[in-house]
Description:
Strands 1-2-3-5-4-9-10-8-7-6 form a ten-stranded antiparallel sheet. 23% of the residues lie in helices and 26% in strands. Pfam families: DUF4931_C (PF20956), DUF4931_N (PF16285). This is ATP adenylyltransferase/5',5'''-P-1,P-4-tetraphosphate phosphorylase II. GO terms for molecular function: nucleotidyltransferase activity.
Amino acid sequence: MNKSHLFFNTSIGVQKPENIRNKQQACPFCDRDRLTNILAVDGSIILLKNKYPVLENAYQTVLIETDDCDAELSTYSPEHLHKLIRFGVAHWLDMEKTGEFESVIFFKNHGPLSGGTLAHPHMQIIGLHDIDCREKIDAAVFEGIVIHEAEGVRFTLSTKPRIGFYEFNVRMIDTGYIERFGENLQIAVHYILTHFPFKAGSYNLFFHHINGEIIAKIVPRFVTTPLYIGYGIPQVPNNLEWMASEVKRLYFNKM
């Protein structure tokens, strides 16, 4: 078994509903009475087994964030934001603790360039039986220009981005959820969708559990550059200091 690649089941993949572009497609997450294989519920938040497990040798779950199909993480109330992140992180770490997987990935797609298929706000928690995703991560991609640091939470803009250009990082020690973590995560998403210097309607949110820290990487998504696809060379823009200062001005100078 090749442990560097995930295998995608195309016969299942062609069955998946898609309504990010196909607006006529009904949303399966809105029809809550028909949801099956529910694992946990907290109000409008639901964790369930993925009905379309396209990844082989993996345990796939979906975290439905809210019952509002038109909602978005950047506009959640503080109460719902913190409940959601607590819920997701707890179930992600619990899956890790079972010892059944080489690694467990926790991520979110939003928008047509994110790689997602459904517009309804959701995340995914996936246990990988034979791939340790941590082996593919260089700690340097989480370092960068400090935008804000308080209450044990560090918010940065990457100076060595994993894919290239602009990547935000929010990190905290894994001793317990800190609300500042969720707040900074939300700020990064809000900035991407509202104030970004280039029109951005898509992003990914990736959670990592490395060396006793919980780290969220928030990445605005555009068409991926050919230098990265063809040669694996990330590009670093020359206006990182300006962007970090702009986020500080917009979100922290009033604090």
